[in-house]
Amino acid sequence: MPSTAQTPLRVVVLVSGSGTLLQALIDDLHRGEGGHARPVEIVAVGADRPGIEGLRRADRAGIAPFVIAPSEHPDRTAWDQALADEIGSHSPDLVVSAGFMRILGPSVLDRFTVVNTHPALLPSFPGAHGVRDALAYGVKVTGTTCHVVDAGVDTGPIIDQRVVPIEPGDDEASLHERIKVQERSMLVEIVRRVAEEGLTVEGRRARIGS
């Protein structure tokens, strides 16, 4: 993925809920916000269901929204192909899964580089309940991971991680809120750096820059 200062990094963001990660990208990167060396253009925001706040955030920012709902397709393969086709119509350089609660299939993953954040220090505590599982296990630190999406569940090459200590009295909600602060900061920094320096994936190794 070459870094070209004259052209923006074209990004499609996928959301399933409130879109707070999307909002961080809009506030800090979209259309030159923050004065970074290479601009980032969020060219579309996609969702798996209509009526969510993430789509409203896109609309308020003047970003094209789209919905590819699994219920409108006969099976996962057809849904994945429809999603890939819609993403491809926006010619992205990078796809960001920002709280997108669907497993992506080969139609998407074979065509696009997709990055995702997870609220745990992978490979520990993958899946939908990473915060709850870390608390239940009794670990002293957890955090957030940004990784390249592959065919597994939170198994792709790791780009970056941030550590969040678990405090006495933490419950799932309080811990998750502190993780989200680090998650938003990390994702913004990674997308900015991918725009400026590029992303290389070789086997299990994901590297930004040379």
Quote the beta fraction: 15-25%
**CATH topology assignment:** Rossmann fold
Question: What's the β-strand tally?
Answer: 9
The termini sit apart by 12 Å
Q: In CATH terms, what is the architecture?
A: 3-Layer(aba) Sandwich
**Average pLDDT level:** 95
The figure for the number of domains is 1
Which CATH C-level class is it?
Alpha Beta
Q: Widest sheet: strand order? A: 3-2-1-4-5-6-7
Which blocks of ≥5 consecutive residues have pLDDT under 50? none
Oligomer: single chain
Estimated structural class = alpha/beta
Biggest beta sheet summary = 7 strands, mixed
Helix content: 25-40%
**Which series of helices and strands comes N to C?**
EHEHEHEHEHEEHEE
- What would the principal axes of the Cα set say about the shape? globular
Whole-angstrom Rg? 17 Å
CATH superfamily: Formyl transferase, N-terminal domain
